[in-house]
Amino acid sequence: MKNFILLIFTFLSLNSIYSQTTACNGSAPICSIGSLPSTATTSPNFGQLACLGSTANGNWYTIKSAGSGLMTFSLHQGNNPPLYNNRDVDFVCWGPFTTPPNCSSISLTDCPSCPNNTSNPGFYPFGNIIDCSYDAASTETLTINAQPDEYFLLFIANFSGLPAQFVLEQTNNPASAGATESDCAPVCGVNLGPTAATTFPDPPAINTVSICNSVMTSYTLHCNFENPPANQATLPYKWYWNGALQPTLTTQSITVTQSGLWKVVVTHPDCGIQSEDSVNIIFSSTPVLTAPATQQGPIGNCNPSFDLTALIPGLFTAPQNSSNYTVTFYTDEFDADSFVNPIPNPSNFSVTTDTTIWVRAVSNSAYSCVDNNGISFLLDVICDASATGNVICAGSNTGQLTFVGAPNAIIDFNDGTNFYNIQLNASGTNTWTEPSTLFANATYYLTNVAVGSPVNNTPLYSTATISVIAQPVVTSFTGTTAICSGSSTNLIFTGTPNATVTYSDGVTTPNPTILLDGTTGIGTVSVSPTVNTTYSLVSIATSGTPVCTNPASGSVSITVNNPPIAGSDGNTLVCETSTATIDLYSLITGEQPGGVWTRTGTGTGGTFDPIAGTFIPAVGATTSTFVYTLTGVFPCGNDDSEVTVNIYAQPDAGADGNTLVCETSTATIDLFSLITGEQPGGVWTRTGTGTGGTFDPIAGTFIPAVGATTSTFAYTLTAVFPCVNDDSEVTVNIYAQPDAGTDGNTSVCETSTATIDLFSLITGEQAGGVWTRTGTGTGGTFDPIAGTFIPAVGATTSTFAYTLTGVFPCVNDDSEVTVNIYAQPDAGADGNTLVCETSTATIDLFSLITGEQPGGVWTRTGTGTGGTFDPIAGTFIPAVGATTSTFAYTLTGTAPCIDDSSLATVNINAQPNAGTDATTTVCASSTTPIDLFSLITGEQAGGVWTRTTGTGGTFNAATGSFTPSAGTTNSTFTYELTGTFPCVNDTSVATVNFSAQPNAGTDGSIAICDNSTATIDLYSLITGEQAGGTWVRTSGTGGIFDPITGTFTPAVGANTSKFTYTLLATLPCVSDSSEATVTISAIPTNVTISGGTTTCAGIPVDLTVTGTPGTLITWTGTPSSFVIGVSGSNVISVSPTLPLTSYTLTSASLNGCTIPIIGQSTTVTVSATPQFITQVPDITICNGGTLNIASQLTSTVPGATFIWSATTSNVSTAAISGDETNIDQIVNLINTFQNGTINIEVKPQIGSCSGISQQILVTVKPIPAITSTVADKTVICNNDSVIITSISNPVATMYNWQINTATGVQIVGGVTNGTSASGIVNLQLALTNPLAAGTISFDFTPVNGICTGATIINAVTITVNPIPGTPIGLPIDEICSGETTNLTISSFPNIAGTTLEWTVIDSQNVTGFVNGTGVAPFTINDVLVNTSSVQGFVKYSVTSKLGNCAGGTTEYIVRVNPLPKPDLIDGHICVNESTGITYQGYVLDAQLSDPNFTYDWFMLNTVTNTYDALPSANGSTYEATQPGTYQVTVTNTVTNCKQTDQATVVTVYPAIAFTSIVTEAFTNDATITITVNPVGTGSLIYSLDGGAWQSSNIFTGVEAGTHQITVEDTEGCTHLTETVEVIDYPKYFTPNGDGIHDYWKIVGLEAKHNAKIYIFDRYGKLIKQIDPLGDGWDGKYNGQNIPSTDYWFTIDYVENNQQKQFKAHFSLKR
Fold first, then answer.
1. Which helix (H) or strand (E) holds 1170?
2. Which are the contacts of 1579, defined by CB distance < 8 A and separation ≥ 6?
3. DSSP secondary structure letters along 1447-1481
4. How do 781-783 and 788-790 pair as beta strands?
5. Residues 442, 491 contacting (CB under 8 angstroms)
6. How far, in Å, CA of 1643 to CA of 413, rounded?
7. What is the pLDDT of residue 743?
8. Cα dist. 1270→428, 1282, 1285, 1356, 1690 in Å?
9. CA-CA distance, 1354 to 1284, in Å (whole number)?
10. What SS3 state is found at 163?
11. pLDDT tens, 1490-1509?
12. What separation in angstroms does the CA of 1384 have from each of 1373, 1403, 1511, 1700?
């Protein structure tokens, strides 16, 4: 079989596949099934390439091998298709390459003397030149011996430069033994990518795309071709998800939403083979972590364990779930970034120092989804210790300190004088007891805690205090010595604040107690003894724990006396007219005898007997109070009771009266005028049955009204009990005014015969009147007795009067009724007719009615529609669709006569419509019901269906449906509607025709091997088909297909084919087809076995089996069967144990076709192989040492020799290869500061069989030497740590150190030596005497594994300084704002040179503080200012330092009290300028009200320039009556803080008088000007009529009338007023009686103006002369209202002693 590449011109459009290039960097891929483009005729000449002396018009190509074996190609060129062999062709091929080659992969001039392969075919390959030919022939041969996936670069030259085509064809069978073929993937392959522009990398494994975005729920995949075809967008693509075909996905790009393995399969149209690519899509999300808080270990635990995994759920926030991620922890940030060296035991991770932990998280489903925020947190190791002191009573020796810390830790502490230490127990606690008796608080200083082995020392800076409570005492016990029985008194205890006092009253058990106030130490108990009692102190005890109790002594005795009882108060009520004697004793209760009666208060009159205790009232007597008094014995006071006799006066309402009125009277009746002798203060009420009118009980008046009746009114004076009320009565007799009612009227038609009740037409009339007919009305029947009227035809409108006679003082009354009478119209009698809607005749509506009067109007009424109606002519023309209609002829009547109408009805019957005929055709196989109504159109409902032709099927006449069935014939159906007379019936026809449906049968198939030649009857493969169809071949090639007989005969080379049998149908039936499939499977071919024939024992040998990919092979080897891979060959490794072993192939199976294999066998010969018995371990020696290896070499086969070779690094040796005789030798480092290595490979060997070699690593270490040893600090503080760093060259793996000398210094924990792997030693150093400095020095020795260097003596010396004492001092607790702190501070113990640094760490409402330093002792003198009105404070933190050593820190609080803040305001006093007398002083106000403030007032003495005290001025205000400067000093009696303020008081003289000038009368813009003289010294302001104040003395736009001018000054010393008049007239008035503008007059006139005013109408007629000082004109002329219009006036008047006249006009509006 030949595979070839042939270029044809139709492929020239595919230049995107085979792009022509002019350089090797752009070589185009080719393969055995592609084709080449036209040759170049203009490409540049590259000069000599390998064997080619000239390379004009060349093209570059890349070939990739698919497997291992030979590829032999024939290359020819020409322009004579189809041979293409008449042009010279030359080539060079380079390779092999592991990646696609380019120009850098080859040397273009590496073989200038290379021969032509035709002259020396065995010359190649040479270097990387595989083959080369410059033969003049038009056909060349290219041979490549390839391994799988190797690349080769091919250059083809067109020496002639003439247009031509290349043809490249593979001449050897790639399936034959030792052959292979080119890989078409670079040509025909595809690669998946996210876009058309990019592809995923193409490694051997499947790509994985992890989408680390929870928001991104879809991903686009695009199929990219290595060499895209022109129709790539329209090719059919197959997409698979997890191996399952997705039939709906057929496009080049798809969007996926599910995780899994996605694969695309597509056939390149230019290659004819399927290509595929896969990608694993994983939808996940990037974890977002939240850093946890610092994790603190247990206090005092110096090696705590932490469960880091317990933190994992809290690292994630919803919706992330920690179970979806793998979390790792790291102690190094770099490790965390690199995901290396995670903590192996995160659930139980122990640390000894504070450690930062870094956290990383990876998605379990997508390992590329990792966190990106790199969080970390701290593990806090609290290697600490603390102590707590207890609380004891003064004088006790039970003081204790309880220590807590790490188990078994040793704690050092002192009290400033004595030094102690204590070891904690296994639980980390212990208690120490103070050996001394304490009377005051004792403070202890914790200095160090030592834990573990080696000892880890931690300095401590905390303190503990044993608190001592002072014994409580009672300093005072007092109380009242005598009380009155039933009362209480206070026992007052004074002593230790917050203490409890126990006392005894001799009776109560247990003894009562009292808690003293926590601030004042005072306690008060209220007692109420009923007998003489002594109260005695027992003891006093402190509150809290412990309770300190102290005995107490002292007592208070109380004497109890009984009080007098004068009884309970009483009272009574009497009238002044009563004469009964009142027993005062009877009015009080429970009194003791022996008391005295007295009369108190203002009561007078009556007879009082103090001896008998009686009182007799009398007329005129007033309410009186009487007191009964009993004298008490001290301390009981007197007791009295009180009797009140309430005496009330008897009222008099006067004598009765009456009057007579008519109900129409509106005069107000004064009821007081009708009674006589009454007292004021009574109440009027209306009594009896009288109604109506207006009664005013407040004013005592009554106004009658129509309908009011005779009424009685009572005037009542209310008496105070026991006096009785008194009343008088007034009767108002009211007579009714007759009422004939309200006029009425009605309208009737002359045709009316109803009797009209005239009484019904008037309203509100009283009975008893008389009816009369008035006016000109005639006709009808009038009955004056009954008051009725009956109209008649011809009667005219008439008037009737109803009259009632009134009784004096009331007058007669009448009412009037008018009856309006109108004529009735006649529209004639109704009529009708009947028509069909199809009629077009005009109907005369007048012809349908009879007897009508002319002048009416035609209208269409009812629901009738359609047709043409002419209301003017009174006609109607029907039309199709018109409905029955009614037409009204109407004559309009005058109300109350009604309109009259007659009706003409046109009854219209609709013509039925059965619709339009229709036909349909259905397939005979159809059973779908046919809706006959859907076939016809435009039909009306209500018709009847009948079948007129055809048989079969189911016809439903009721529903109008027809269901076909087998055998049904063409049918017609008639739909008929019946018409109503005069309309006729209508029909339509629906026709149903049928066509037959063909049946091509059921699909079938058969499977055969490609060596079968038996003819296949295609009809036998399908079933149930009808005859008459046609066969066509739809796929597959080869074999003989007979479409006439429906047979197929396979042949060699035929492939799977499909044949379709089709029967054509007549519409609407569809054609039918069935398919017969013949599946042809290839039999296996070219199965071979080859491989090595000799091997050493235990050494595997490779056998190669070739065949068609997918072929199942059985053989005599293991396993017994295997499948040929996709490359067409399998390499099988065998390990034979027999000296001779044969391997034979027995059968091959492919696609279900199995054949035997004959003659494919190979035999392997096995020789013995020596092996090592033991492995020589790696060796480490020091520089200059000798190897010892030969004695350790052993073999499984005696007589073996040991062959070795070595590579060295930084090592010098005598030999680097040999046998066991020279392997042991001396080794020396070349660079003595670095490690050296020797890698020795040694193997046992006998003959040509070598055993497995072993590697021996020899490490040569340098001997280290210390180059420097330094400390980070050479001077430190007591208990500080120092870091000593020792450096060697080369770097040592261990450094040994020890103390050389120590003066006054020791290592905390007591160690004296140690080791360090890094050369860094961290030591805590402590002074043996904490108050004196000391020194310590160290020796260091370097060690490098087994190699030890020289020791450096006294490598480093450290000086240790003491820590200064804690600051101490007695601060000033409180100061006033503006004072200095005067805070003196030292330290304890005070070591010379100690400095103090202070910083303000807190303050409130205070300024003026600064931070500072000083040498102890030192005084802080800040001037502090309180910025508020409440107490503030400053908190100083003071730290002691000695050099760089910091001591303790003490805090001091200075409280700063605010100063009083008086705020005096400058002011003035008012002084009479002429007399010099101050008539208005000025009150100076400090504007403070605190009861704890005192005030001292002063006035500046201008002579001495000092302030003189103002005697008796001690309040917050002071009234100044003299000018000058005043000062007040305010002192807070609680804090004793004081402050002063000043104010100045000046003199103001008032203005005395002013004058006003008013512009002349009737000025449009009146102005008032004020002149003040004298003006005084104040700032004057002016006001008009109490309005807004102004600084201007002129008022403009002043209205007419009287005005008040006020002049004041802003200082309040001036107040002047004056009244002025502005003369003017109103422009209109409205005399309508509403009280507003009812009169017109000129305002502002006075008698001095001597004015005369005349009013005229527009014609000059004098209407009125009015009094200028009167009410004005009321708008009347001779007592009658005159019209609204403009009127004129003149006024003659005197102004400024001049006679003047003014004229103008105004409007009267009503």
1. none
2. 1591, 1609, 1610, 1611
3. EEEEEEEEEEEPPP------EEEEE-TTT--EEE-
4. antiparallel
5. no
6. 108
7. 87
8. 38, 10, 5, 6, 127
9. 12
10. coil
11. 899 999 999 999 999 999 99
12. 12, 19, 42, 99
Signed CA dihedral, 1582, 1588, 1592, 1593: sign only: negative
Task: Take residue 1408 and report the two structure tokens written for it.
Answer: 């003026």
**Are 389 and 467 a contacting pair, CB within 8 Å?**
yes
The string of DSSP codes covering 739-782 is ---B-EEEEEETT--PPEEGGGTSBSPPSS-EEEEESS---SEE
| Residue 822 burial (CB count, 10 A) | 17
Q: What distance in Å separates the CA atoms of residue 743 and residue 762, rounded to the nearest whole number?
A: 5
Contact of 1576 with 1551, CB cutoff 8 Å: yes
| pLDDT recorded at residue 34 | 42
Mention every residue, 6+ apart, whose C-beta is less than 8 A from residue 660: 733, 735
CA distance 628 to 610: 10
Helix, strand, coil share (%) of the chain residues, nearest 5: 5, 50, 50
Q: And the tokens for 579? A: 């004469």
Nearest CA to 66 out of 144, 14, 154, 142 is that of 144
Whether the CB-CB separation of 1017 and 1041 falls below 8 Å is answered with no
The pLDDT of residue 986 is 86
* Element of type H or E holding 185: helix 185-188
In whole angstroms, give the CA distance from residue 1452 to residue 1403: 11
Q: Are 1488 and 1515 in contact (CB under 8 A)?
A: no
User: In a 3-state reduction of DSSP, which class is residue 972?
Assistant: strand
Q: Closest Cα to residue 88, out of 116, 63, 125? A: 116
Euclidean distance between CA atoms 944 and 958, whole angstroms = 8
- Predicted local distance difference test score (pLDDT) of residue 319: 81
Encoded tokens for 437: 């008796």
Give the pLDDT confidence of 775-813 residue by residue, as tens digits. 788 889 989 888 999 998 888 889 989 888 776 667 778
Q: Which of 334, 209, 349, 174 is nearest to 279 (CA)?
A: 209
Identity of residue 567: G
CA angle 46, 22, 100 (to 5 degrees): 100
Q: What angle do CA 1517, 1519, 1525 make, to 5 degrees?
A: 95
**What pLDDT was estimated at residue 455?**
74
Helical spans, DSSP H, in 1142-1271: none
Whole-number Å distance between alpha carbons of 1607 and 1610: 10
SS3 at position 348: helix
CA 733, CA 667: separation in Å to the nearest integer? Answer: 14
Burial environment of residue 440 by CB neighbours within 10 A (0 to 12, 13 to 18, 19 or more): exposed
Task: Flag residues of the chain having pLDDT under 50.
Answer: 1-22, 34-37
| DSSP symbols for 1405-1453 | SEE----EEEESSEEE--B-EE-SSS-EEEEEEEEEEETTEEEEEEEEE
- In terms of Cβ atoms closer than 10 Å to its own Cβ (0-12, 13-18, 19+), residue 138 is buried
Q: Cβ-count burial of 413 within 10 angstroms (0-12 exposed, 13-18 middle, 19+ buried)?
A: buried
Question: Which residue, 1537, 1527, 1456, 1526, is CA-closest to 1492?
Answer: 1537
Gyration radius from the chain CA atoms? 69
Distance, CA of 1234 to CA of 875 (rounded, Å): 135
Look up residue 26 and give its two tokens: 């752009």
Contact 502, 538 (CB under 8 A): yes
Quick check: 753 and 790 in contact, CB under 8 A? yes
